[in-house]
Amino acid sequence: MKDFLGDLDLTSAVGKIQDILEKIDKVQLNIAVTGESGSGKSSFINAFRRLGDEDPDSAPTDVVQCTKEPTAYPHPDYPNVTLWDLPGIGTTQFKADKYLVDVKFERYDFFIIVASQRFRECNVELATEIQKMKKNFYFIRNQIDNDIRNEKRKREFNEEKVLEAIRQDCIKGLGQANAADVFLISCHDLGLYDFNRLLDHIEEDLPNQKRHALLLAVPPITMEILQKKKEALRTRIWMVALASGAMAAVPIPGLSISVDLGILVSEIKSYYIAFNLDLKAEIKYVIKFSDFGPNVVAQLLGASSRVAGVESTAEYLFSLIPVIGSAIAAGMSFATTYYMLNKCLDDLANDANNVLMKARSTHAE
Ligand SMILES: Nc1nc2c(ncn2[C@@H]2O[C@H](COP(=O)(O)OP(=O)(O)O)[C@@H](O)[C@H]2O)c(=O)[nH]1
Ligand SMILES: [Mg+2]
């Protein structure tokens, strides 16, 4: 924060911050999903977008693809993140170089190649060609749940060994084409196997702002992902708080409270969305978005009835602002917003963790 502010006065600092915050939400991330027909491209896209295969906005699965056009599937909550369902590879006259030109390869930030048991040469050709175009690809061996189910029937079943054998088999199959890695996943339960590791690798390769977009959009399906989301959301709290504080410094009586609340509420909403908490009953702040108001803020401050005669601590704090003057109001507003957002982020991340653990234990039963 200190580095950022430097010699800037408050007004220009806030202008710059608002600019940054606005731009963050508009950073485009385009993910190409390619591979053989039937490997699970569309299923992967649906799982990533947290949509069931039956959802009206989902990518149709299990249909023979006749179109040669990539289909765009913007993320429902983060429309700046788009997954592209590319035509299946491996048809009789497959030419990787022509394919990449046809699908407009330059449009994508990276490629995900999805393969299933039927691993064929076309995967290698495609991987090689993508590398030639100086783009990153990540090789996914999908439908691992099927392999595990089949292998479980054998007497000497050892999951780790099975997974390692599949991984080695793919690495061998890719041969020279691939200095990189192979990631085992199941679209039917994306949080299992190598999904965390896949995310680590993609993250590492992306520039900062695109990484941020990815972390917000990735489904919150593992503890590791929740942690990353929390950290990503935390990085912008000081900016939001400063913008809110500066708003309060505008010397118009009575303005500060509504402006603060607006910024605060929209930031908290974004936490709900990032953690996918909007529909869950277990959450701590059981409120609909439309109900956000001073009472909710009071709840966030954690003291609803401690101040006698004043409805809530929050309202009490806010009521002081016009009296003590705009400069202090700015500082207070900054501190209050900063404190509340941090607390709220921790609480909601915790709730998300509990929801996830509960889902996992139900799943295991
Ligand atoms: N068991 C299992 N089936 C999958 C998985 N991913 C996809 N499928 C199934 O494989 C079939 C083809 O998937 P689809 O997404 O349409 O493949 P696409 O042609 O590459 O788009 C569908 O019946 C999916 O339900 C997976 O991880 N596990
Ligand atoms: Mg498909």
Here the CATH topology of the largest domain equals Rossmann fold
Give me the CATH superfamily of the largest domain: P-loop containing nucleotide triphosphate hydrolases
What is the second-level CATH architecture of the largest domain? 3-Layer(aba) Sandwich
Largest sheet: 6 strands, mixed
Number of helical segments with 4 or more residues: 15
Order of neighbouring strands in the sheet with most strands: 2-3-1-4-5-6
**Overall residue-averaged pLDDT value:** 80
Amino-to-carboxy terminus distance: 47 Å
What ligand species are in this complex? guanosine-5'-diphosphate, magnesium ion
User: Would you tell me the structural class of the helices and strands?
Assistant: alpha/beta
Share of residues in strands: 5-15%
* Count of the domains: 2
Shape: globular
| Parts with pLDDT < 50 across at least 5 consecutive residues | 250-259, 280-292, 301-328
Q: Helix content range of the residues, please? A: 40-55%
Computed over alpha carbons, the radius of gyration is 24 Å
Please count the beta strands (DSSP E, at least 2 residues each): 6
Q: Which CATH class of the largest domain is shown? A: Alpha Beta
Note the run of SSEs as H and E: HHEHEEHEHEHHEHHHHHHHH
